[in-house]
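#help-structures

NK: newbie question. if I give both the sequence and a SMILES, will the prediction place the ligand too? trying with zinc ion
OV: yes, paste both and it writes out the complex. here, I ran yours:
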Amino acid sequence: MADVRVGPRGLAVLILACGIGTRLCGAGDSGPPPRAYPSIPRDYLLEAPNPPDFWVSTVDGVAGFLRERVRTGKVEVIGASAGGRPIRAVIYGHAREGKGTTTFSGAIGAGAMRAYFGPDFDKRVYLAMASVHGGEFEGIVGLVNLLSVLETGKDLRGRPWPEIVAAAGQIDRLIVIPIVNVDGRARVPLRIEAFRGTDGTIAQYMNTGGWPDGRLIGWPECKVFIPLDMSRTQFPGGYPNDNGINIMHDDFLGARQPETQALLELAARERPDLILNLHTGAGWENYYTRMLRPVAEDVLTPAFNGLYRAVQTGLALAGLQASGDPAVEADPARAPRNVFNLDTALDFHCGALSVVVESPSHGYAGKNPQGGEVRQSADRLLDAQLVVQQEAMKYLVNAGGRARWAGGK
Ligand SMILES: [Zn+2]
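OV: that's the protein plus ligand as structure tokens.
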């Protein structure tokens, strides 16, 4: 079954509608991927055989899941993409009530963070979002399964996550956005990529796109072209929205994209303490899930170090790092440094500690520090996604929120 949508550029964008109901994204319930971009090499459109049922990764698969499986959470459309597609969040719990008396900048200037957060400064507000880059599926699968845990106590494999349930019970407000860049995700016509050994070329093509002669636009060169003139590509990839903008690197203080605006408005309303921004782009040489150190306020450094230690320790102890030794895997001095981007903008907008988590890809293998090949199965990738959520939520519960981390009175 396929859903046909006519995009703003007149291209028929076909989205695989996964079987809704008992099977959300099983194999064999639809034909070959659609050809909205007919010059994509045919081989690039191969999918892995028999995607697992827990692998819910498409725009329509996620929409179906939200419609049919979310009962406790409230599904809210927080905005529309450049291409006019709804951006959906699922929200649990009670928001901070009342307003502060000043702006975030004013609160920093006064050394009085509570003046920004208002009477509910001590509440804990957690936001997780995925697919800011539309070709990166692991975070989507992770957040759909997180929603399953929040709704039923179990992920879509039937595995219980009691520590997530317990932590969620102590977080006042929980917001989950499975797909931020809905345009980019709708553009990539795959549910799950075929496994390509150690060759990440096709995964990169799906993300950063290709020039008319088939050459990869590539990373980080894709960042030289924002906006990307999509009419001058063979395939624009899943990075940009339908205006050609990679919203990780939007014009944050100028003319913002609707996706960025929706996030900033949500952040201003909810005043989250912690934001997890889930990507697929783990380092080739140490091919395991890793959190990046954001460009953020200096005062958030201890909170980031604590969060990094908690998350990377959880991953190491679960056997999801190169070694099982937290002293090695969870040393914050090893956290790769990010650049000024969406997470920085969110921090300076609402005070949240906003961090990128980079997952390995299901589509290709990388290396461990000893040079051995590391292939990550769909199961292990989902385990890592949920361990990250579990440990980050526990960290927020134990360490308190932004008003406690810094800011004086
Ligand atoms: Zn990314």
